[in-house]
Each structure stands twice: as structure tokens, then as C-alpha cells.
Design goal:
TPR repeat; transferase; kinase; two-stranded antiparallel ribbon; about 675 residues; HisK_dim/P_dom; elongated
């Protein structure tokens, strides 16, 4: 409860400061706009006026279309009067963008074609940008054939310039056109090419939108597994990016797909995630979409009243913001659900609403047709005026085309040669240095492994032989417990030889993890077997063991590696334990799915905690034994890898004492 209260307080404070920051930014932005408007009224300098007009256009372009048209008209007028082609080109493109948003497509195309003729005085990058804008207008207009032609021209220019960003952008647009006309295989081919370029040449986050389009295409093709994969991939790449709109849109799409596949729980998870993200973004269109999907979720689980509530919220919001298509979907859902619960009066009411909304959509289409006819007349008049103006520019363009072309060619060739020589030399030097360093490291490693392997193996073989000779010569004089002690010593020597072999071969860890044999293992018996082997070590340091072993603890794992895990942890507990201290060993069930083992030191030893924690997390070779022991530092890292490979978990708890604990799955 305390955690939830603190969490609510933190969220409320965060939102409070966020609103203050947004308000401050809005006031600052308003003051900046007022200042720019004042400069526009007072300045008479041509360059200053053009820059001010451009800044105001950037501010107003998504807010006040009428004001942006006034600004772009003035930019075009001034640029034409001073014969400044750069500003004239900028004015044409700005005005064309506004007219496209206002659905005045023909006039927008005329301006972009004028800009395209001017672009021949500049570079291919500008030309490709304008052609891409022409394609956008054709897409908005619904003329997909001409849109495809424009995007393909833009792609040719981008490939000629080796501009990978524009190549990816053009491929993505071509894929969308194929998507709109139902050629899904061609759409996938281009979308995947776009996404791959963005991943290889830039960063995965920039490819999220292209990956989202791939998911939508698979969705329409009813290849649901592929659609889910790409939607999820897009969401993962969008997390942490500054594109919350796309993140919410993909989450809603994935939730809709899960509902279609009757994966109700997965759908609800992404619905709630999208809603939480939109609490920050506060986009009305996405909110309507999310409410509609949530209503469909309640319908799927037969909670019709909750579904009706969600549809009503979506309908009210859609009506408020004049979203006719969303209103239509909401009324259809309400009609359906009221009929299911038997409230036919409400069902008939929303059926009537649905018919009214459909009529409104139809009337809007007719109004748009009439508007297009009127615009065509205006466009023809504008074309005549522009043709007269363009004839004045042709002579000036011809005079500077050759000069610009030659200058750009010479400069580009020089830069390419210079960069190529520099990169080639740098690569040669780096490869040489790294090759020499790698050879030296490989030689040092081989020498060290040969020396250690030879010396340690010979010593351990000698110890084993001495024990065997002692047993045979004194067989009649030794008591039973003494013979058992000698046998335990020989077992420890053999296991130490195996451990040394594993440590000397760095690649052995990966090989062993591939050779795990999972069986039913009584982990209590394995623990007792290992404890018997460390009696002498514990007696030597006067370390006391406190045992709490629950019987019949059966796990699903590899007995050899469980034994190695216990061997490492118990040997370390003796090794790092202060003299005359105690160690607590506990083996117990936790629920029906896990068997837990913990080993706890009774005293808090900060330096040891840091060492053990470092070994578990990173496998570093720091060590600090408390007696005459030594340590390689690799053991606990290997323990962590073994436990993970057997689907377990190892962790370190630090309170008044320090505890190493691991869990393994119960055998079932």
C-alpha cells in the first residue's frame, strides 16, 4: 500500500511539473511568434524579411492554413522581384505543402512542377526532394499510378547520389503505394528493403515505421503470425524513441490483431499499454481508436455492458472532434451490443444515428467533387500566369547550368578521392595493429596454459599416487573411518583435476552447457555427498555448519553439474568464512514449482560481499580468502552459467548477513 501511495505521488508530481514546463514553453513560443510578427511589420531589409517569413511559416504550417498561404505568397512575390531562385523555390514548396493539406491538389502540383524546373539550377538532392513531394500529392489525390512514377524517379536520383536515407524513404513510399493498390508482395519487397537500409546504415529505431507498415501488410494478407512478429518488432524499436504516436498506433494495431485471433489476454495487454502512452501524448484520434478496440475486447469476453460504455465514450469523442468514420464504427458497435442484450429501443436509436453519419460521409464526398471542379478552373488560370513567368526564367537558367555542373563535378571528384585515400590508409594501419596485438595475446595464452596444465596435473597425480601407496602398505593397520578419509581425499583430488581441466580450457564452458543431460535428481543426497568431502576443510578452520534439509527435494537437472555447483559454493563458504565462524545451509521447497538452496554466513563481511557479487555478475577474478586458500575467481561465474542453463536463478541477498541463493525447477 505504501508503495502504491508513493508511486501515485511521484506520478502526480511528474505530471504537475510537466504541465508547468509545457505552459512555460507555450508562453515562450507565443512571445517568440509575437516578436517575429513585430519584426515583419517593422523591417524593410529583404533578406531579413524573407527569413522572418520563413520562421513564421514553420510555426503556423500545422495551425493556421490561411496565414501560411499569406506568408508563402509574400515569399514568392519578394523572391520573384529580386530574382532569387533559392527563395522562390522555397516559397513554391511551402505553398504546395499547404495546398496539399487543404486538398487543393492540382494547384499544389503546378507549384511543385515550377519548383522542379528551378531545381535544375541547384543539385540532384533538391530535385529528388521535390519529386518525392509530387508523389505525396498524387497519393493524397488517389492517383497511385502517377505517385508510383514519381517515387521511382526519386529512387533513381537517390541511388545515383548514394543517399541511403533518401533511398530508404523512396522504397518505403513505393511500398505504401503498392499496399494501397493491393499488390502486397511488391509492397513487402520494397518495405523490407527500406527497413533493412535504415537498420544497416542508421539505427534500428529509424526503421520502426517501415517495420510497422510490413506488419500492416501481413495483417491484410491474413498472415497473422508474420504480422504479430513485425508489429512487436516495431514496438520494441519504438520504445525509447521520440515517436509516441507510432508506438501507440502499433500497439492498437497489434491489439486489434490479437482480438481477431481470439488471443484476449494479449490484446488487453497492448490496449492498456497504448492507453497509458496516450495519457502522455493526449491524441484524440488515437484515444478514439483505443476506446473502440477496448469495447471490442469486452464484447469478445461477453461483458456487453462494459463494451457499450467504451463505445459510447468513443462515439462522444468522435462527435466532439467531427471524426465521422470513427463515429460510424462506434454506432455500428452500439447497434450490435444493444441488440445482443435485448435493448432494441437503444439499438434502433443508434441504427438511425449510423444512417445519418453515412449520409454525412456521402455528402462530404459530393462536396469534395464540386470543390475539385472549381479548383480545376482556378488551376487552368494559374497555369497561364505561371507559363508567362516561367519563360522569363529559362534564359537565366541556361546561363548558369553548365557552370554549376562543372564546379560540382570537380569538387565531388576531389572529395571522393581524398576521402577514399584517407579511409584506405586508416584501415590498413588499424588492421596491422590489431593483427599484431592478437598474435601476441594468442602466443601468451598458449604459453600460460601449457605451463599451468603441466605443473598442476603432475602435482595432483603425485598426490593421488602417494595416497594410494599409503593405503596399500597400511591396509591392515588402518581403521574403517581412516580408510574412508583417504577415499574422500582421493575423490577430491580427482575432482580437482577435472576442475583444473575445465578452467584451463576457456571454451569448455560453452561445450559443457551444450552437453547437459536433464534427469530426476534428489538434490538432498547430492548435497550430503558434497558435505562429506569437506569435513577436513571445515575442521581445519573450525567452521560450524547448520543444516536444514527438507527430504524428497526432487529437481529436473543434470546431477553432474548440480554436484559441481554445490562443490563450488560449499568450498567458497569455507574459504571465505572467518575462523571459528558458522555457515547455514538450507534446502527447501518454495511453492510447487521451485526447490531453493541458500548458503548464509552469520557475519556481515562487506569486502567478501563485493567479491562474491562481482564474481556472480561479471566473472572477474578478484578474490579475498580468509585462510591459506587461493582462488581463480572463475568458479562462481561458472556456477551462475550452470544454474541458468538448468532454467534456474542465482542471486545475492545482502541484509545483516550475506546469502547466496539459487532456485531450480521441481521435477514433475
Amino acid at each position: 500500500m505504501n508503495y502504491q501511495i508513493r508511486r501515485c505521488l511521484v506520478i502526480n508530481l511528474s505530471l504537475f511539473f510537466l504541465f508547468i514546463f509545457i505552459g512555460f514553453c507555450s508562453m515562450s513560443q507565443s512571445k517568440n511568434v509575437d516578436s517575429l510578427e513585430h519584426v515583419l511589420l517593422t523591417t524593410s531589409n529583404t533578406d531579413g524579411r524573407l527569413n522572418t517569413l520563413q520562421h513564421l511559416f514553420v510555426f503556423y504550417q500545422n495551425q493556421n492554413h490561411q496565414r501560411t498561404l499569406e506568408l508563402t505568397n509574400e515569399i514568392i512575390s519578394i523572391a520573384d522581384s529580386i530574382r532569387n531562385n533559392k527563395w522562390l523555390l522555397e516559397g513554391y514548396m511551402n505553398k504546395a505543402s499547404v495546398l496539399r493539406i487543404m486538398s487543393q491538389f492540382e494547384e499544389s502540383l503546378v507549384l511543385l512542377n515550377n519548383a522542379l524546373r528551378l531545381a535544375s539550377n541547384f543539385d540532384e538532392k533538391t530535385e529528388a526532394k521535390i519529386i518525392n513531394k509530387i508523389g505525396n500529392v498524387y497519393v493524397s489525390k488517389g492517383d497511385y499510378v502517377k505517385a508510383l512514377e514519381s517515387y521511382q524517379k526519386s529512387l533513381v536520383l537517390a541511388e545515383r547520389m548514394q543517399d541511403f536515407e533518401k533511398i530508404a524513404h523512396a522504397c518505403g513510399n513505393i511500398g505504401l503505394v503498392y499496399f494501397y493498390i493491393g499488390q502486397y508482395e511488391d509492397a513487402l519487397l520494397n518495405m523490407k528493403k527500406s527497413a533493412q537500409i535504415l537498420i544497416d546504415k542508421f539505427n534500428p529505431g529509424r526503421a520502426a515505421r517501415a517495420i510497422s507498415h510490413i506488419g500492416a501488410t501481413y495483417h491484410l494478407m491474413k498472415r497473422y503470425d508474420s504480422a504479430i512478429y513485425y508489429y512487436r518488432d516495431a514496438i520494441n524499436k519504438l520504445v525509447g524513441q521520440n515517436d509516441r504516436y507510432s508506438l501507440i498506433m502499433n500497439s492498437n494495431n497489434l491489439a486489434q490483431l490479437f482480438l481477431e485471433q481470439h488471443q484476449i489476454d494479449s490484446a488487453n495487454k497492448y490496449i492498456d499499454f497504448a492507453r497509458a502512452e496516450n495519457e502522455v501524448l493526449k491524441n484524440n484520434k488515437l484515444e478514439i481508436q483505443n476506446l473502440t478496440i477496448k469495447a471490442q475486447y469486452f464484447e469478445k469476453i461477453d461483458n456487453f455492458q462494459q463494451g457499450i460504455n467504451q463505445f459510447i465514450l468513443a462515439f462522444d469523442l468522435a462527435q466532439e472532434y467531427n471524426e465521422l468514420e470513427s463515429s460510424r464504427i462506434a454506432t455500428e458497435g452500439l447497434l450490435r451490443l444493444y441488440a445482443l442484450i435485448g435493448d432494441y429501443e437503444q439499438a434502433f436509436y443508434f441504427q438511425k444515428k449510423n444512417f445519418q453519419i453515412r449520409d454525412s460521409i456521402f455528402n462530404l464526398e459530393k462536396i469534395k467533387e464540386f470543390t475539385d471542379l472549381r479548383e480545376n478552373y482556378e488551376i487552368k488560370r494559374l497555369k497561364i500566369e505561371q507559363a508567362v513567368s516561367n519563360s522569363k526564367l529559362i534564359e537565366r537558367q541556361k546561363a548558369i547550368i553548365l557552370r554549376n555542373y562543372l564546379l560540382a563535378s570537380v569538387t565531388l571528384a576531389f572529395v571522393i578521392i581524398l576521402v577514399g585515400v584517407f579511409l584506405y590508409r586508416k584501415k590498413q594501419i588499424q588492421v596491422g595493429i590489431l593483427g599484431n596485438h592478437l598474435s601476441g595475446l594468442r602466443q601468451e595464452k598458449n604459453q600460460l596454459l601449457n605451463i599451468v596444465s603441466h605443473d598442476l596435473k603432475n602435482t595432483l597425480n603425485n598426490i593421488h599416487s602417494i595416497i594410494e601407496i599409503f593405503r596399500k602398505k597400511n591396509a591392515s593397520n588402518l581403521k574403517a573411518y581412516q580408510v574412508s578419509y583417504l577415499s574422500a581425499m582421493q575423490k577430491n583430488v580427482k575432482r580437482l583435476q577435472v576442475t583444473i581441466n575445465n578452467m584451463l580450457n576457456i571454451n569448455q564452458l560453452e561445450v559443457k552447457l551444450d552437453q547437459l543431460t536433464f534427469t530426476k535428481v534428489d538434490i538432498g543426497l547430492v548435497l550430503k555427498e558434497v558435505l562429506e568431502q569437506y569435513i577436513f576443510s571445515a575442521l581445519e578452520k573450525r567452521v560450524r555448519f547448520s543444516l536444514d534439509i527438507e527430504p524428497n527435494c526432487m529437481v529436473y537437472g543434470d546431477q553432474r553439474y548440480i554436484l559441481e555447483v554445490f562443490d563450488n559454493l560449499i568450498s567458497n563458504s569455507i574459504k571465505y568464512c572467518p575462523i571459528e565462524d558458522s555457515v547455514s545451509l538450507r534446502l527447501f521447497r518454495e511453492g510447487d514449482e521451485k526447490i531453493c538452496f541458500s548458503i548464509q554466513n552469520r557475519r556481515k563481511a562487506l569486502s567478501i560481499i563485493k567479491i562474491v557479487e562481482n564474481k556472480i555478475v561479471t566473472g572477474n577474478s578478484l578474490n579475498l580468502p580468509k585462510g591459506s586458500e587461493t582462488s581463480t575467481g572463475l568458479g562462481l561465474f561458472i556456477v551462475s552459467e550452470y544454474i541458468s542453463a538448468m532454467n534456474g536463478e542465482i542471486r545475492l541477498d545482502v541484509n545483516e548477513h550475506f546469502i547466496i541463493r539459487f532456485d531450480l525447477p521441481v521435477y514433475s
